[in-house]
Amino acid sequence: MQGVRLVNLPKILDERGNLSFMEEKNHFPFEIKRTYWIYDVPGGEVRGGHSYISNQEFIIALSGSFDVVLSDGKESKTFSLNRSYYGLLVPNNVWRHMENFSTNSLAFVVASTDFNEDDYVRDYNVFLKTKNN
Ligand code: TYD
Description:
Number of strands: 12
Strand order of the largest sheet: 1-9-6-11-4
CATH class: Mainly Beta
Largest sheet: 5 strands, antiparallel
Number of domains: 1
Order of helices and strands: EEEEEEEEEEEEH
CATH topology: Jelly Rolls
Structural class: mainly beta
Bound molecules: thymidine-5'-diphosphate
CATH superfamily: Jelly Rolls
Protein name: WxcM-like protein
InterPro entries: QdtA_cupin_dom, RmlC-like_jellyroll, RmlC_Cupin_sf
């Protein structure tokens, strides 16, 4: 799927506890405008179900696990995130939802734009039309 990729982050092993980090432009190709996180997700809940016109995101499971399901309108792919030392790059114009959140999971998201509801496409049929044009 174009532009989608799993990115390994540095992992500094230490008997005092491990450390990982990420740097804009080094590990994902945009400057950070915003971060947000999703937590306390009740079992069985689904988040997302939209695409963005211009926002790009890099998603990390800082704790626990969840699945990110992506679709470009032709194919669909599921990425299981369950380690804090890699992240998933999700370009704009990709439909996504997140599911199978484990207890106490923490989804950390870095985003390339400020929050803007007008940047959302929340209707899958509208999304498909944008892909066909
Ligand atoms: P939304 O992106 O729809 O959540 P999800 O895709 O995880 O289901 O956001 C849920 C609500 O939170 C919506 O009313 C917009 C608001 N929101 C902000 O105000 N700022 C933000 O940075 C984000 C991501 C959401």
